[in-house]
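Action item from last week, closing it out:
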Amino acid sequence: VTSDVTWDDSLLVGLEGALLGCAYYLLSCRSCGLAVGFILYSSGSDLAYLRGLFCFFKDSIICYLLKSQMIIEASKVNFPAVTLKE
């Protein structure tokens, strides 16, 4: 990603929520140490299409909008629905 986002070599296992039973690497901000996303290592078939991808938490990201030259929280941006399934 960038040098500002790091991940630990230790696999974590989801104990609740959407990642229940999944193994993943946590992505963290190098500056503040907060979790900003994950890389899914193993999962059930419902999340298999996300394995190996960098998945970011919208509420942890700040976006720069080129057209309006504004900085805005990603959670306030309307991202179009995109499926990664083939």
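Closing note: The chain is about 0% helix and 35% strand.
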